[in-house]
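In this section we walk through a basic example: taking a raw amino acid sequence and producing a predicted 3D structure, encoded as discrete structure tokens. The instruction is simple. Fold the sequence below.
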Amino acid sequence: MKKSAILFLFHVLFVCVVMQAQNYFPPPNAAWQEKRPTDVGLDEVKLKQAIAFAKSNEYEGSRDLRIAILKGFEKEPFHQVLGPTKKRGGPAGLILKNGYVVAKWGDTKRVDMTFSVTKSFLSTVAGLAVDKGLLASTNDKVGAYIWDGTFDGVHNSKITWEHLLQQNSAWSGELWGVKDWADRPPSEGGVDDWKLEKPKAPGSVMEYNDVRVNVLAYALTHLWRKPVPMVLKEHVMDKIGASTTWRWFGYKDAWTVVDGLQLKSVTGGGHSGGGLFISTEDMARFGLLFSKDGSWASEQIISKEWIQQAISPSKPNVNYGYMWWLNKKGARHWNGLSEDLYYAAGFGGNFIVIDKEHDLVIVTRWLAPNKIGEFMKLVNEAVD
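The resulting token sequence is shown next.
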């Protein structure tokens, strides 16, 4: 073998060893290794300022989340709590650099509701279906897979999996006793205006709507022929060493029959109860998986191709992909921060932020939602 070829192989091996040493993946049921911010090139003083900011800007809603939900969505006609809720804890968070914990605050093992952070987990179950070949393409019509009437009709038959994932499906109907038009209706008009409004063309307008997200969860339950939480546990959470404490709930009457078995169909959020109940540490593991392009140690758990697809802007909303928010120049842009940032976000100030440029994962709980941009700027100042 020529000397140049040998040197090249040694160089590749050296780079691989260095990269592996830099990237830490916490094992299951073990204390998460920590590093001083200064050991990984971060400004410790400024990072402490960011943490102090998060702790002093708690979400103002009631810690009894049943009360917070009823108050937060009181403008919705017929709104009621249909699934489980849980009283929450105080502000909590983790900041990871190269997988190591460099900052933490609050009770990071406490299990709390995450509301719409759940949606990013739900879209991942769709990604697994693509990776496993259960779903050929997100551009396929959902009605070609789910033929029980849920996607029948001139309007609903046009809906693709991508429309559901990007929240621009405009699916029309009722699921688990909740009508699509009654979920987050426009600020103008009243019940008669909302229920008689003609649905928009699928793919044309993003509308944040839990009924339509729950339709996606229902469709994935039938596609996988098993409960969605079981899919997530088997193919993701167990593999990344998540704890056994997380739970994913649906509404009390959200039962469907698959292969003769009654299965619970979960929700993609919690604004009527339900959704993902999870600890800060398990959220951080999920974020770390995405920051490493779907790889955990030596195993590729989610394909890089899916993650790239999931964080690509949708046509109706440049700040939204497949149930991940994107920091692109648009209505939801965090000024002064990288456009490559993306994040999961939920009611009450729950966030998982992926900053690949700086190899950071930031999880913050119960931070006033209107303060997240300012908080991220403080974190960014600790990097610069």
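Looking at the output, two observations stand out. The chain has eleven helices and 15 strands. The mean pLDDT is 94. In the next section we compare this with other chains.
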